[in-house]
Amino acid sequence: MDQDIVQRVKNDPNYQQLKETRSRYGWMLTWAVMIVYYGFTCLNAFDKPFMASKIGSGVMSWGVPLGLFVILFTVAVTAIYVRRANREFDALTEAIQNNVAAVPAQAAQPVKVRA
């Protein structure tokens, strides 16, 4: 890859914004998923009587709906990330591509993304 293009991408203010925003958002969602997964795992490991206790007078234990919650939470977090990536991150990526493809003498123009 042409080093000039690489340097223009790195110097683009949209690239800096994309890199910081996506990284911060990704880590926030990662921690949320880790808390849910490890919380469920710790409940299984250290509070077996609770996980095995029945819900009401039925036969289902607390482990089943909590396990289902973990799965649904993962799907929801993925959908949340994809929605934001399609709205915000793709617009920044397109702006970066347009700025890099423009004449090198032009200054890169930051794009205003709706949050």
List keywords for this structure.
single chain; 115 residues; 76% helix; 4 helices; mainly alpha
Helical content stands at over 70%
Classify the secondary structure makeup into a structural class. Answer: mainly alpha
In quaternary terms, these chains amount to single chain
Rounded Rg: 22 Å
Give a short account of the largest sheet.
none
Q: What gap, in angstroms, lies between the N and C termini?
A: 33 Å
Strand content: under 5%
Total helical elements? 4
Instruction: Give the CA-based shape.
Output: elongated
Overall number of strands: 0
- List the helices and strands in order: HHHH
Unreliable stretches, pLDDT < 50, 5 or more residues?
Answer: none
Describe the 3D structure.
There is one protein chain. This protein has 115 residues and is mainly alpha-helical. Helix content is 76%, strand content 0%. It has four helices and no strands. The chain has helices spanning 3-11, 13-46, 48-52, 63-101. Helix 2 packs antiparallel against helix 4. The longest helix has 39 residues, at 63-101. The two termini are 33 Å apart. The model has no long low-confidence stretch (mean pLDDT 88).
